[in-house]
Every structure is written in structure tokens, then in C-alpha cells.
Write a structure and sequence with these properties.
alpha+beta, 8 helices, 7-stranded mixed β-sheet, globular, about 40% helix, Deoxyribonuclease I, Chain A, 3-stranded antiparallel β-sheet, homodimer
């Protein structure tokens, strides 16, 4: 790079929706994605929701020539689903798991089992340090029980980027953030890190209207979920930032628009985001790219704080109510034990309880006790984590006010 | 600092062993620790195992004058137990929870519930970025089932420090690492980060022989555990590193030696470590402090890799055996269901099973099923995490060999 004044970096980002047995025409789509990546020859490929290691291995074999370096991030029960392919050597990786990640009993959503996380990849001889990640999935904007968790994740992601990217030349962040551009989580992330959005900064744009990445014309999307948004929604991003003596410009941004060329199906239920970045070394080191102005940032922070506090109140209530349920189940069990002991001691005249319903009741009480204790444990962790985030945000607010 | 050429930084580090209802004479010891800190006026106080927020609040009230800035790190069910008090403003904090942290069913150890983690604290106007943390507790060196987990934690800690400390001027790491100086985890941590040990570098040392921090003469330590080590063991450390245009020297290191002055009890079952560091700005920015030489580091890495691999094999076996147990319990339940259905359909002549033992058996099968399924889930996560660490270490090894 010293002798070469500029680098053109072509980035591909896609949420592949490759869940074994569940995602439609998965293997066919993975093959299509691999073919497309081979044809176009991107420098950096960021994929999400590659849940099966077999799919990763297939892609790795296919991309061996154009992107010889790759990494698959492991975490949670099923994995993180994150993988990265690169033309440049990958020197180091780091995985950061979000502390809150949905609820284990929301089995139909499955987020808790995935171990949602952000994976950091450090590029080598090229002066690039691109972290890459995915935030918590959004299910229903109307009554969003996950909102505080997603704000905690946006905050943790922003903090992770701030702390790890200090010595990087260029920071790239690609992934399915599951938040609209105007949502408080995105504004917090962008304001707190100074990351810029390729969609708003690109000199040329080609693709779905408004840069949407979840569109009604894609045959795999749920039409009912997109009803309030006739154009679709934009939730997949490529964000960037030049940290030290470099400048980054987005020359072009493209998205896919439904079906893949030459076939009747799209690559995924999401559209791919393809950005061409122009990275150049500056003659003089200049001041670091600033995020939002102080007052605007303070406003976003206070909005996020409110949401986290609402989540904290809900989590406290759930902790209390699951604890109460556990105590009630324990009392019932004790009562039954006393009854049995009384019977054994011959205090009761005859057998007042039918044996079967008595043991069924005990069985139920034990099940409720175990379940409620587990929930109590889980919500206790949730309360601690929300409290911790609230405190960190308050500290950030104080620092902002003292050093605007 | 620009006008002031040097800074003397006095650091206090102690594992306080302050577990509510369990630790002996806890409130008295917390009072003693607070008094001692007020008297001595340290610049930075790193405390571990402060499990009760009430103890933290008491210390905070007491230290308000000498260390006006403080932070308590929240995580896990009970908390992280980590807190920091500082003379300098704390501008930012970050908590990183280790991905592996003992086993939830080892209730007597309790590690899983604590959420062991590393807390990062970023100092403000002073050019200091001291992370501060505690590693997994060691219980029995003879048959150490936790060893792979502790190596994973040492590796994650080293990676966390490498990635977050790049832009820091000075890195300080204090805490109870629960590893002896010659253990592979410590060698890995020091080699991979370049951190230096205050005990070996100090110009003056005063305290327990060999710098031990868990000594037989402390009335709270378990004598039987220390039997193989007549002098005691050194498991609490203050490590440091100057990253950019600064030099750090350790002028003095002290440890407490059993009972606190003027009383008949020690501050804790651990001895406190007190370091005086001399931090100076260099005239010219020099090269970054290097860790171990390449070949020595590669040797440590390969030793750690072996241990992680052993842990991986054990975790895979446990995952398999808990899965098999869950399947067996499920089969038993199905068999019982078939028997009940058969009976209801009138296929069986009369009632062949005594009702009570039949329902007790069903109850047992459900309990075993739930337990085994939970264990299977847990060991699946363990396998993923050990695999991920193994891969990261192999990548580091490759990079070391290619760029020695």
C-alpha cells in the first residue's frame, strides 16, 4: 500500500438464510451464491446465516481460487452462522457474543440458541481491519419485546468497535442489523462509532428502491410482515470508517433485485449488498472521522436509555413473577410431603387422596418448580445485563456532557 | 501529562473473598480494606470477589475522597464481583465474558453462575487504559478438569487485550489469574500480549517469599490445598505494558503478609498486591514492546493447543454420553406411553403395573430426560467454543510461522 496510492475494495454482504431442513431450496441457492461470487471476484465476502458447516465447506472449496482465505465463527449450540471469505490473508479473528440474545423459551424464534455475535476479522498486509457481524433478528415491529435486547446489542457492538478499531486504518462493518435506518439502535451505533452508511454516501446506486434488502417481490419473504412497507425495508448494511491516515469513499453500491440472473429463484430471502470502496492514503494524518455532534448524540443516547430502562422494568417484573411461581410450586410440594408423612404416621383415617392424581399433582409441581427456577435464573441475568448497559450509557452521557 | 514528564501510579489489587453468608468475617474485613485504602491513598484499586453490591456501595462511600471514580461490573446471575476505584476519571468501560466458565452442575464451585469476565476501564485525562480482570478459579491441580476452560479463558483474555489495547498508551492488568507463573495459561497470556510481570521486574520487593499471594500462614486459606507448596502459591498478579511512546518501570512491589496491621485477621484469604509504577513519556516513539520470541511463543501455543484438544475430546464424549442418556429416557417414556395406551385399549388383561411405581418411573424418566437434554445442550456449546479456540490458535500458529 505504501507504493500503491489507492486500493479499490469490492465487498459482498448477504444474509444467506441457510437453515438446514427449514430454508427453502437451500442447497440450490448456496450453489448459486458460490457461482455468482466466483464470477464477480469480490475482495471481501461477508455471509450470515450459514448455519451448516457443510455449506461453509462447499463454499470454501468453490471460492478457493478467488478468495483463498476464510473463517467460520463458531458459537452457541448451533453456531454463529457468520463466515468471511477474503482475497487478503486473515491474520486474526475475535468473536464477541452479545450478552442478551432473546429468550430461551421462544423456541419458534431460536435466537437464544444461535449465540448471535459479532466476529472481528483482521486483514493482513493490506491496512484493513474489518469487523463484521449480525445483530439480533427483529420479528414484529408492532409489539417489540426484543427492542431492549437489540439496543443492548447495538450498544455492545458500538462499544466493541470503538475499543477494537482504535488502531485500525479502515473499519468495515457488514451484516444484517435487523434495524431500519431511522431506528434508535442504528442511530446509536452510527453516532457512537462514527461509521458511515454506504447507501447514503455512494456516488452511484443501482438496485431496489430506497436500498431495501427485504422486498415484497422476493418470493421467499413473508408478505404479511412487509405489508406496512410497500417498497420493502432496508436492514442489511455495509458501513465504513477511515480511522487514521486514510480516506474511504464509496464509489458504487448495488443490491440484487429479487431473482438471480438466469434462474427463477433469488439467492436468499434478503437481497445482497455489494459496495465498491476507494481507499486512499492521505498525505498528512488528519483528525479522526467524527460521529454525530454532541447534542444529537446525547439525544439518541437518552432515547436508547429510555428503551433499556423500559426493558429493565419488564425484566424485573418477570424475574419477580417467575420467582413467585417457583416458591408456590415448592410450597405445594412441601404440602404434599407433609400429607404423605401424615399418612405414613397414621394420622389420617384411611387414604383421602386418589394415588394417581396425587402423584400427577406432584409431577406437575416439580415441573413448574424446575421451569420457574430456570426462568428466574435467566431473568436475573437479563436484569444484571440491562443494569450494566444502563450504567455504561449513563457514564457515556456524563462524559459527553463534561467533554462535549 | 504533556507538561509533566513522569507519573507515579500506585496500584492496589486484592481478591477480597467477600461472599455473602459464606465468607468468614466479611463485613469486618471489608471495613478493614476500606480503612487501609483510605490511609494509603492508592491511585488505582482493583478488587475481585466483591459479590454483594452493598459491600461495593460501602467501599464507594468510604473511598469517596481518595478515589472519587469507581465502577462495578455486572454480569451473570450473581455478578462479576469485579470493581475498580480510581483517582482519575473513568471515561469508558467494557465487559467481556469468557465463553467457557466451568460447569453449571458443579454447584459447589459456583463458577458458572458468576459470569467470570474481564472488565476494561479506560482512564481519562491521564493516558492510561488499564484493563482489569479475573480468570477462572482453580480448584485442584492434581486432576484438573477445568484446565482446558482456563486455557480458553487465558487465550480469550490475551486476544481481548491485543485487540483493545492497540491504541492505549499503557496497559495494566491486575487480578487473581488462578494460575502459577510457570503454568501454560500465564505463559500464553504473557507471550501473546507482551505484558510484563511486576514481581520479576520490580526494583524493590517486600512481602511474602517468592511473591506468594495464597500462603499457609493466612488463617483463612485451606491448609490441605497448599500442602504441596510449603511457601504458598503466587496466583495474583499486576502485569503491565507500555504500548506507544511511553515507558513503564516497576519501582516497588509489596504484598501483605497474613494479618492486617493492628488486628488479628487478614484482609482476605488472598494477599493484596501493591505495585508502584513509574510512567514516563519517551522523547521519541519507539517500537512496541515485544512479547516472547517467535519460537518460544510457538512452543507455548502448541502446548496450549494440546490441552485444548484434550478438553475438546472430553467435551465431545460428554456431549455424546448425555445425548445417549436423553434418548434412553425418551425411549422409556415412549414405552410407558405405549403400555398405558395398550391398557386403555383393553389389550392387557387387567392392570399389570402397580400404579405408584409406574408413575414414579415416568417421573424419573422425565427428570433424567430434562437433565440429560440440558447437559447435551451445554456440552454442545462447550464443543463449539473449544473448536473455535483451537482454530484461532492454529491461525495464530500459522501467522507466527509465516511472519516470524
Amino acid at each position: 500500500m505504501e507504493g500503491d496510492p489507492a486500493l479499490q475494495l469490492r465487498v459482498f454482504d448477504l444474509n444467506c438464510w441457510a437453515i438446514r431442513y427449514l430454508s427453502k431450496r437451500r442447497q440450490e441457492r448456496i450453489r448459486l451464491i458460490g457461482d455468482q461470487l466466483c464470477r464477480e471476484g469480490f475482495d471481501l465476502v461477508l455471509l450470515q446465516e450459514i448455519w451448516s458447516e457443510q455449506d461453509y465447506s462447499d463454499l470454501k472449496a468453490k471460492l478457493g481460487d478467488c478468495c483463498p482465505f476464510s473463517h467460520y465463527f463458531r458459537s452457541g449450540v448451533i453456531g454463529s452462522g457468520l463466515c468471511v471469505f477474503s482475497k487478503f490473508p486473515i491474520l486474526d479473528t475475535l468473536l464477541y457474543q452479545y450478552s442478551l440474545n432473546g429468550y430461551p423459551y421462544m423456541l419458534q424464534h431460536g435466537d437464544w440458541f444461535c449465540g448471535k455475535s459479532v466476529g472481528l476479522v483482521q486483514g493482513g498486509s493490506q491496512p484493513l481491519c474489518p469487523p463484521f457481524f449480525q445483530l439480533h433478528a427483529e420479528y414484529c415491529r408492532e409489539k417489540d419485546a426484543y427492542l431492549p435486547h437489540r439496543i443492548v446489542q447495538a450498544w455492545e457492538l458500538a462499544q466493541f468497535i470503538r475499543h477494537t478499531a482504535k488502531a485500525a486504518d479502515v473499519v468495515l462493518l457488514g451484516g444484517d442489523l435487523n434495524m431500519h435506518p431511522e431506528d434508535v439502535g442504528i442511530r446509536l451505533l452510527r453516532g457512537w462509532t462514527g461509521l458511515q452508511d454506504t447507501f447514503t454516501e455512494a456516488k452511484r446506486f443501482e438496485g431496489c428502491e430506497d436500498g431495501c434488502t427485504l422486498i415484497p417481490s422476493n418470493c421467499f419473504t413473508f408478505k404479511s410482515e412487509l405489508q406496512p412497507f410497500p417498497l420493502g425495508i432496508r436492514i442489511d448494511y455495509v458501513l465504513y470508517k477511515a480511522v487514521s491516515s486514510f480516506t474511504v469513499e464509496c464509489e458504487e453500491l448495488r443490491t440484487t433485485t429479487g431473482t438471480a440472473p438466469g434462474t427463477d429463484i433469488p439467492y436468499s430471502d434478503h437481497e445482497a449488498v455489494m459496495a465498491t470502496l476507494h481507499i486512499q492514503r492521505k498525505r498528512q494524518a488528519a483528525s479522526v472521522t467524527r460521529g454525530m455532534a454532541g447534542p444529537a448524540l446525547a439525544e439518541v443516547l437518552s432515547e436508547a436509555l429510555t428503551e433499556v430502562h423500559v426493558g429493565l422494568l419488564a425484566a424485573r417484573w418477570q424475574r419477580y413473577s417467575s420467582g413467585r411461581m417457583a416458591v408456590l410450586a415448592l410450597l405445594l410440594l412441601l404440602l404434599q410431603a407433609v400429607a404423605v408423612l401424615g399418612m405414613l404416621a397414621g394420622l389420617a383415617a384411611g387414604q383421602p387422596f386418589p394415588k394417581l392424581s396425587f402423584s400427577l399433582l406432584a409431577f406437575l409441581a416439580v415441573a413448574v418448580l424446575l421451569l420457574a427456577a430456570g426462568l428466574h435464573l435467566f431473568h436475573s441475568i437479563e436484569v444484571k445485563m440491562l443494569q450494566g448497559t444502563e450504567e455504561q450509557m449513563r457514564m457515556a452521557m456524563r462524559v459527553l456532557q463534561e467533554h462535549p
